[in-house]
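Q: What structure does this chain adopt?
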Amino acid sequence: MRIPASAGGRYAPVRGTAAPPRGSRGTVVRYMVEVERGLPITGADFAAEVHRVLNDPRSWGHGGTMRFMRVAGGAVRFRVSLSSPALTDRMCAPLVTGGELSCRSGNRSVINARRYGEGARTYGRDLATYREYVINHEVGHALGHGHRQCPGAGRPAPVMVQQTKSLYGCRPNAWPFPQD
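A:
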């Protein structure tokens, strides 16, 4: 998918809501998804992928600790914002993303649309798994998790390793709790 270097420069919140998984266990975490206007990725498609990833048992709600609910407004714990490389650079400053990286900025998990659309060298042709990784990694920051290091050559990389840059000897891993 061809992602432009810049788009509209402003976000459009994705309309509607997506309910958290059923059950009484786990704190409900409200979040919002927004997509920069002018990107060739629909808000509905991106929001559905974010919701699927966050509510996967291998993600941050592991073991029923959290359940994620997408809302279109009101108070939220974090926002997941799909952004062109140019808007990513602006939103992530003073961090230098070079039009290539994603980041957390305040309560916003900024996902670089070029990375989301094309993947990263470290994941080869596995775009679907890379997308799971970048969502989990940037939302991990919004939930208070910092970067980690590779625990040893050939082992799965913790999701908070900067896998877009390098695997540092580890194997790719998109999930905070990959064993489940």
